[in-house]
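Input for the complex:
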Amino acid sequence: MPRLNANEYDAVIIGAGISGLVCGCYLAKAGMKVLIAEQHYKPGGYCTSFKRGEFNFAASAHFLGGFRYGNLNTIFNDLGIFEKLIIKKFDPSNKIITPNYIVSFWADLGRTIKDFQTVFPDESDNIEAFFNFLIKSDPKASLRMRTWTFKDLLDKYFASAELKSILSFPLFGNAALPPSLISAFIGIKIFREFLLDGGYYLEGGMQVLPDALAQRFKEFGGELQLSKLVKKIRIKNGKALGIYVDQDEFISADYVISNCDARQTFLKLVGKKILDQDFMDKLDQMVPSLSGYVIYLGIDEHISELPQTGVNMWVLPNANFELDNIYHTVKDGKFHNIDGYLLYVSPDKRSILAFLVAPFKNKRFWINNKKKLLDALITRIDMDIIPGLQKHIKFKDAATPQTMFRFTLNYKGAAFGWACNPSQLALTDFRKPSFIKGLYLTGHWTTKGFGIPGVMYVGHDTANMILRKWIA
Amino acid sequence: MAEKVEKAIVSIISEVSGFDEEEIKPEMNFFDDLEIDSIKAIEITVAIEKKFKISVRDEDVPNITTVKHAVELVNALLEQKAADAKA
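Predicted:
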């Protein structure tokens, strides 16, 4: 029966992150009446861009991956997204840079394997076996490894501690965990989606992706309300009935999908009264991922030694390969050595991003450290990769974990949802809580993956689960 | 007891796969019939382990292909657990 009343929907989605948008598109395309309510004034969550004068910066996510081994092709085709974007692939997509050598991730897997074999000749056969294992998708192998860390996996293949660290460093940057803590399953996903098939750049910047999804959503009949903060999810007799927005306005829906963080979803929007003590204890034990510190540099056109654009450069400037130590040092908020960072020069050659894994900390900490760290990181990049950089900077700023929180309301500015330890993988109650009918979570707080390919997968899957019920 | 186990497992599979409980038959293959992929297979296993307070061993994994297999495995692990508790 068609919904005629303005404030009655088949489904409401809280948050226009990539996962909420993908889910919304599929639901609206199937004929549901869908509302997406987003607190920010633009869609995208961590996948947004902003302009400062002549410069266009990716706020956080800055490339796409996962077309070859992931499910992005299916989703983009289903939703007609390819027609709305110009996608350019950079090769290599990622480079690991140490004082002594560089290894690259090429579109050609054989070339990637050779790069690693040249630096680690004693591990030649193991390198080949490892990469060939990574590109095979085998649910049973994943199932066997569900309790493994990435270190467990690396130990099966390699003897060289340095090689194991080199292979783990992009995971540290992409998930903020060292190999001894990150789930092997998630580590493999990062290799498949970000490293072995990364480097896809969107012409016009990252904002074009959420904008294209939002546009498709509206074309499918969906309604997107920006600057709309959801206050509460209404639950009665164990069933989600809708949401409350500003001035206690009630919007009813058969399905409520939360694309915001899990703590906020349960503790604030659902409310403690609805939750039993066991679940609250579990929620309290869950550990969020660390956040990130990002610098944005606008540069002039006269840098003579600008590195290749569109490539993630994973820099280990001090040849410190002790990722566990680096993790614990940055977790404590100590950055003095800057032992590892990610550097990215945008394809338009006008902006530079650099990322550090960073802890949340309080406002005072970041007021004291934001500028210091900005200057230290610029000096570091100047020394390691772009000599003379300082003289060519026309704009500089940084986002701290506090900034991440302010724009996205992710708990503690967490960059990747819950920390991806094996014990926090694939927990059903964070996906579709058994005690509230009609409530679903989507996005990187569902313990089922993160990054653009990860949250798109969950968004698509959430829509499939709902549509199966709705159509029936 | 065995029936209860089957019902609980079917309920978990239904929650994760999105298929209705009535649609899920014992002979159904997880990967071919129920559209279970890697992450969903992990999700089902983790939920079963939690529900029955058992651990699925690595060597058991190749044997879980159908709903029936999963039920048999859980029953065997529960029997083992009961026997261990007695001993």
